[in-house]
What we know:
Low-confidence stretches: none
Structural class: mainly beta
Order of helices and strands: HEEEEEEEEEEEEEEEEEEEEEEE
Number of helices: 1
Helix content: under 10%
Distance between the termini: 45 Å
Largest sheet: 6 strands, mixed
Number of strands: 23
Amino acid sequence: MPPWHAEGPHGVFKNDRRLPEADKQTILRWIETGAKAGDLKEAPAKPAFTAAWTIGTPDLVVGMTESYTVPAKGTVDYQYFEIPTGVTEEKWVQALEIRPGAREVVHHVLVYAKVPPNPNAPPAAAPPPRPAGTPAPAPLLIRAPGQGLPPEPPRLDSAHAPPRQTGVLIGTMTPGNQVMEFPKGTALRLRAGTVLTFQMHYTAHGMEMKDRTTVGFRFAKEMPDGEMFANHFFNGSLSLPAGVKDVSVPAEIGFGQPIKVWGMMPHTHLRGTRWEYTLEKPDGTSEMILNVPHYDFNWQTYYLFDKPLEIPAGSKIRSTAWYDNSASNKHNPDASINVKWGDQTWEEMQYTGFLYTVPSRRLRPVPGQ
């Protein structure tokens, strides 16, 4: 059974994997009494694990057109692969699943979607002028100054460099997390002509391996009430002193318009130990919305709320991640160095992915209105 690392009462998270307390006590009593076997004739059949898709048979599968060879050792730059979807009409995605071809060497996959501009299309019409004295609409997301990403280091190779534009983020795969299923009434838009970009983070594993990652989509049967969006916020200025055991690094994102947050995924590398998220509202109140006291790099989870968080305009979500850069951390690649933001597993990140909808952009009218 995959572990669960968040605190909070049952019923808060849609994908909560914890055993109820009564079930735990049943197992403990069975162990205390000698863990004796019952009537084996009544034992259920052993589960059959197949290579089938977790989301069921996808309506569309898009994958790398050729394999990429990950070397046995050395540093591998992020590799980017652009793949046309062949979609000729707008689709609504209810679930997606990212399947690495060589799981041992795939650290993460980010899937972006874009529609290349049509060179034959007429110029877009200019938006109508805003009436005099009307304030400009507030931005939806407000990034914190000083928390952007550092400049990209020079690439070690010229193959599969990042494209000029990747598009919008639509899917994430990390260790322990490769399926994204969106709540009823929400779905992710896939436009006609969409081209996907796979951002592949490979980590050499001591043996040369070939990877050919794919993503499967299951479509909704009808237009949803709300369009689901995926985004992220981070603190690219993190700095972890050598040998220090408990270092906290904050990050934040603000909201100029009301939104609903449906899920959050904390992400650090091998030095990350725990996370906390606080919602600060414009009326001065605040509340803990996610507490992950035992972060595990090998079991990263998109924590999906059973009911979306209602985020008023003017609010902020503040995250704090803690790191152990000491020699007592058995996972620490090197406790003797100061660590900053970096793409590779032996470097660090302070990154949060989140899923949200925008109530003002509702696609279908509210019943009775």
